[in-house]
Amino acid sequence: MNADPATLPPPQGEGFLLRRWRRDDLDSLVAHADDAEVSRGLSDRFPYPYTRQDGERFLEGQVVDLDHPVFAIEVGGRAVGGIGAQPGRGERAHGAEFGYWLGRPLWGAGLMTRVVGAFAPWAMRHLALYRLYATVLDGNPASARVLAKNGFEEEGVQRCAVYKHGRVHDLRVFAKVRRSLQDAT
Q: What is the pTM for the complete model shown?
């Protein structure tokens, strides 16, 4: 790893700011996260309904490790979504899984494509990764398009990998890799 990601300035892009989550994000977090359509494509650690207590637990680092690169997506001065990476351990420390979400009012305008386009090379460079990957629930083609537009290749499908909302779902696996840390990301 090049440096502690917690001390590095997050990547930026057109129309958004990535930054660390703050306690004063609670109202905006709950307003954008409390949506069944947002939750349906995410793991169950992102519940619906999404309550103030869920938001407080997240902001206190009880849901994901906020020492990892886990950023709020800020638009117009408000946190409207999030993106973050979970580095591997041991023999898998050269890779990381990442995930993201966005409040529904901002869907369909290319924002998440730009966010992933800024975040992925930043994460690969600053975490010294050879592999960055994400899984996409079978019913979420928009997320798969975001990854494909950013050069992630679909590697395969984990069949019957998730049980959510009363049915079994497949997970599509997308990854971006490089063979050398000097390779472009």
A: 0.94
In the DSSP assignment, the letter for residue 52 is: H
CB atoms within 10 A of CB 86: 15
Q: What is the pLDDT of residues 113-140, one digit of tens each?
A: 999 999 999 999 999 999 999 999 999 9
> What's the length of the chain?
185
Q: Taking a C-beta distance cutoff of 8 angstroms, is the pair 167, 134 a contact?
A: no
> How is the beta sheet containing 16-20 ordered, strand by strand?
12-13, 16-20, 70-75, 78-87, 95-102, 131-137, 167-177, 153-164
Give the C-alpha separation, 123 to 105, whole Å: 27
Structure tokens at 98: 């990442």
Specify whether the CB–CB gap between 42 and 49 falls below 8 A: no
Determine the residue type at 41: G
